[in-house]
Each structure stands twice: as C-alpha cells, then as structure tokens.
Specification:
There is one protein chain. By secondary structure, the protein is of the alpha/beta class. The chain folds into two domains: about 1-110 and about 220-340, D-Maltodextrin-Binding Protein, domain 2 (3-Layer(aba) Sandwich), CATH 3.40.190; about 115-205, Periplasmic binding protein-like II (D-Maltodextrin-Binding Protein, domain 2), CATH 3.40.190.10. The chain has helices at about 1-25, 40-50, 50-55, 70-75, 90-95, 145-155, 170-180, 190-200, 210-220, 230-235, 240-255, 260-265, 270, 275-285, 300-310, 315, 330-340, and strands at about 30-35, 60-65, 80-85, 100-105, 115, 135, 165, 185, 205, 225-230. Strands 2-1-3-10-4 form a five-stranded mixed beta sheet, with helices on both faces. Helix 6 (about 145-155) links the parallel strand 6 and strand 7. Helix 2 (about 40-50) crosses helix 11, helix 7 runs parallel beside helix 8 and helix 8 (about 190-200) packs across helix 14 (about 275-285). The longest helix is centred in the first third of the chain and has 24 residues, at about 1-25. It is globular and about 55 Å long. The chain starts with a helix and ends with a helix.
Length: about 350
C-alpha cells in the first residue's frame, strides 16, 4: 500500500515538474546583446549555440545591437527583457533612481583597449596626445564611452576636449580605424587582434584584457559582461532568471573544459569571420577573461562605483546601495545544482 502510494506521489511530482518545465518553455525571453561580434559577449552567444537556454527550459531570442547603451535602451523601452552587457550600466543608472540588477557575471575583466589608428602611428604616442582628436567608441553612452572618459581624466585630459564617434565593435570598428575616420578608439577582441594582425606596429595606449593590465588601470578586478535587467522583472520572473543563470554557468563551465578550437567551432560563422586564425588567436587571449563561476565579486562592484564616482559627478553625489545593483543568489543556486566550481 505504501509502495503504491509512493509510486503515485512520484508520478504526480514528475508530471508537475513536466508541466512546470513546459510552462517555462512557453515563456519567450528576449536578450539584447551589446554587440555579438565582441568576444566579451561570447558566453551569451555560445549558451544559445550549445542549446543551454533550451535545456534550462527557456525559449530565448537574442537581438544584436551596436553597443551596450542601445541594448539597454531596448530593455528600458520594453522591446527586450534582459541585457547582455556591461555591469557598469547598473551602477550608473542607480544614480538616476533606475533600478537594474545583474544576476550572472561572465567577464572577470572588461577587455577594453585604447588603440591608436594606424594612420596616427608616430603622431599619437600617449593618452595626453588625444586632446582635440576624434575617438571611436562602440556607441555614445556605452561602457566603452564610460571607460574612455575615465582613462582620459586619469591622465589629465578633459573629455570635453575630444570628439566621440560611435563605430560599433566588430568589422565597422576595424574599418573606421584603418580608414582613419577616427584617430583612436576603445576596442575589444577580436577587433583588436584582427587590427594588430594587419598592423604589426599598432600602438595600444591602455589595455584591460588581462588581470595584470586590469589591476594596473583600476587597482583591482573590474567586472565586465553580465546578464542584467530591471529589478521588477527579476521579481516577477524568478524561474526564467534562474534558468538563464544556469545556462550561463553551464556555458562557463563548458568554456573552461574545452579548447579554443572547440569553442570557435560552435560559434556562428558570421561572427568568426574570414580570418579564422586571427579569431582563434583573439579567442585564446580572451578565455582567461571569462568567469569560472558567474558570481559577482563585491570588490569588483566597488571598483566600478569608484571609477564612475571619478568620472560622473551624478554618481559621486548619489548614495548608491551597491548591494541592490547585483545578486548572487541565482548563481549560488545554479552552482549548487550543477556542481560547477
């Protein structure tokens, strides 16, 4: 009798779990990516390529934008649900009483490089030489723009003295630099490595693609790419947030247990591009940048606030509660269920 009852309970529980999974799968989630060609966003793209979102019970659509500010606008405007972009937007908007929260972090470092256009080699030799120049960023108001203003101020250059031009992150950024339509730019891989492959004497004035370089620039680790959205969306959709987190955590685990060649083979051909050797070289350089856990380091979040406090009077004056700009509870749940380290 007890065995029969136990079987009935187990069958009922299994049916309930299937119904719950089916209900979740019917929920479509749109993720706005701030530039899919950038390796900084690879974990989100790869999660979809590996089928991790689907396995977690979600129907995810990814929409590509030229920069993080545009993907953020899509979420704030309601045309997308979640941003795959840089955490610093959560801190910046907290100063404006707009509540956004990161729930899984996939980049340990920002990966920014301040690169001189090949046409300006020998002319621009230091950051101070950028005064009066045209500087490319992915899009005005994006994290690349924030970093540019920070690094200029840090080196005694008034950001108001330079012209900021949106050039995207991929092939459009490389073309803008080669054609000289900008004098320098904040770039990320694979664009940096692709440009360097064509210009062996390429000048890089500042680099945050490694732990050492990031520590030199920020005096600490500085979280980059993350999945984040409006706090109220998280509160209303905890199951979907947990599923996305699990998908990214599993993808990070997959990245760190496979070769760069295996990772590249899973990526869409249009993102890899024609020069597979240079893409592979860029990917090998980038893999250490990816988180192994997905957790936000509180010290990293504090570093972001410190940087913005220096470059934004609005952030400096605001009494920002950093604990509300991110949460690790979904990652901790995913790590407990996946066994990832």
């Amino acid at each position: 009798m007890m065995a029969h009852l136990a079987r009935r309970l187990a069958t009922g529980l299994a049916a309930l779990m299937l119904m719950s999974g089916a209900a979740l799968a019917q929920q479509k989630v749109t993720i706005a990516i701030g530039g899919s060609s950038c390796l900084c966003y690879l974990p989100t793209v790869l999660a979809k390529q590996l089928g991790e979102f689907e396995r977690a019970g979600l129907n995810v659509e990814t929409v590509d934008f030229k920069g993080g500010s545009q993907s953020l606008t899509a979420v704030l405007g309601g045309s997308a649900d979640v941003v795959s972009g840089y955490f610093d937007h959560c801190v910046n908007l907290a100063a404006k009483n707009q509540h956004l929260q990161a729930f899984v972090v996939y980049d340990r470092y920002p990966g920014f490089a301040l690169v001189v256009s090949p046409k300006q080699t020998g002319v621009i030799k230091s950051i101070k030489d950028l005064a009066g120049k045209r500087i490319g960023v992915s899009a005005p108001g994006s994290s690349t723009d924030f970093f540019l203003k920070f690094i200029l101020k840090k080196n005694g250059v008034d950001p108001a003295m330079i012209g900021v031009i949106g050039i995207g992150l991929g092939s459009t950024a490389v073309a803008a630099m080669e054609q000289g339509s900008v004098d320098a730019a904040i770039m990320l891989d694979p664009a940096v490595t692709l440009l360097q492959g064509k210009n062996k004497d390429l000048v890089i004035l500042s680099d945050t693609r490694t732990q050492k370089d990031t520590l030199d620039v920020f005096n600490g680790e500085y979280p980059g790419g993350a999945l984040y959205t409006r706090t109220e969306w998280i509160e209303k959709n905890p199951a979907a947030v947990a599923a996305m987190t699990k998908a990214i955590v599993n993808t990070l685990k997959w990245i760190h247990s496979h070769t760069a060649e295996e990772i590249m083979a899973k990526m869409p051909p249009e993102l890899v591009g024609a020069d597979k050797a240079l893409y592979l070289a860029a990917l090998k350089n980038t893999i250490p940048m990816y988180s192994t856990t997905g957790r936000m380091d509180p010290k990293g979040a504090q570093a972001v606030l410190a940087v913005f406090a220096q470059s934004s009077p609005e952030v400096a004056k605001a009494n920002i509660d950093l604990s509300k700009t991110y949460t690790n509870r979904f990652v901790d749940q995913a790590l407990g269920t996946t066994g990832a380290k």
